[in-house]
Amino acid sequence: MIRWSAPNSRVAVAGTALAIALAAAGALRSGGAESAPVTLKTTEIGAGPALVFVPDVGLPRTVWMPTARKLLAGHRIVLVDLPGHGESPMPDPFTLQIAAEALDRVLAAQKGESTIVIGQGVGGVISTLAAKAHPEHVRGLVLVDVALRSPLKIEDQQKQMFLRWMDDNFDQFVRQVYSRRGRDSTQGAEIVAQASLVAPVSLKPYFREIIGLDASSTLKSFARPVLYVGSERGWPADKTWAAVSSERGLEGLAAPDTVRIAASAQLIMKDQPDSLAAAIGKFAKKSLAAK
Q1: What's the fold here for domain 42-151+216-289?
Q2: From CA 86, how far away is CA 103, in angstroms rounded?
Q3: How do the domains of the chain map onto residue ranges?
Q4: With contact defined as beta carbons under 8 Å apart, do 149 and 215 qualify?
Q5: What is the pLDDT of residues 84-121, one digit of tens each?
Q6: Are 31 and 179 in contact (CB under 8 A)?
């Protein structure tokens, strides 16, 4: 439980923002008015079993290209922009469930028996929700540095104070969230610059969704193969898979394949495209052969 005292509330809220950023957690919220369906922008090239790539919040679909191009031979590559990113419209109101429904419309246009969806961070949470709701649309699921549960327990009053602070200091918040996601300070600045291209009106709803919420039950009894890929920053060398899965709300996975890729951070698809492509390709081949 996070405690805080009024005189230091500004510092405490900033600290909470940073903790949330490092947690990179996601969750599902329901309720509220219905949103009109949105069509997500995609880039689709190649032929064969579909590999659908979903980026983390704040990143464009093209971030996957260094890895995706290595898988182009023998695969249909589908790069997807999240709602409110690039040319994808932002639903109003927004929830992760609505985003998952929009992604599912992309998945439904592929051949479900041979489609692998690859999601990073919050994009992985959205991919998980879509795959759970319509498992017939996917053959396998690859999660890259995904957390389905925040490690933070935040009281309602603290949550509201944090959200007010975020609204009033959003540029600072974006720098805190994204600058530490790089392999080094130079890459951190690159990630901040990418996230800054997304309008605050589109970014803020994602962070309102993920703060303190929990979607860890989503993968319980999930019947499709799952590969978890951890970057060096997301899965430190001194942590076991048991510790990582417990922290990130992934205990519901019965027997996932796991791969840890060294010398990588949020831009793992650029840091280690060969290793990441090899892991995805091996998993896809195994999943498709297990029909």
Answers
A1: Rossmann fold (3.40.50)
A2: 15
A3: 6-27+152-208, 42-151+216-289
A4: yes
A5: 999 999 999 999 999 999 999 999 999 999 999 999 99
A6: no
